[in-house]
Amino acid sequence: MKTRLQKYRHHRIMPTTLLAALGVALVCVTTYAQTPEKAQPGEATFKTNCALCHGDNGAGTPVGQALHVKDLNGKEVQDKSTEDLAKIVTAGKDNMPPFGKRLTSDQINEVVEYIRHLPQTK
Q1: Which residues pair with 57 in a beta bridge?
Q2: Nearest to 108 by CA among 90, 94, 84
Q3: Which of 11, 40, 101, 108 has the most other CB atoms within 10 Å of its CB?
Q4: Rounded CA gap, 72 and 119, in Å?
Q5: What are phi and psi of 56, to 5 degrees?
Q6: How far is CA 23 from CA 3, 10, 16, in A?
Q7: Model pTM score
């Protein structure tokens, strides 16, 4: 005949195991929630220099729309060559000011690559 301790022994293990599992899950969720997404090269430069008119998603802000900016996600912009986009960022075009004196060529190339990824992030 089993003693009372032996009979209910599995009941003591289960809450302990459950608490341990919940603790691990809590640590994982907290760590995941605090892990920032890895920023793409050019993202910070884009947000600092371009987002005022083009918006964070490239579709344009009210300010940009008043200036008739292009939707960076659109076919017209996305079909341009990397070199053409870099020239536009460097020298400016229409209402867009030139950024060739504010940004390095590496920063401009990173911004152009970031623009290429905008349609994928919508």
Answers
A1: none
A2: 90
A3: 108
A4: 8
A5: -60, -30
A6: 32, 20, 11
A7: 0.66
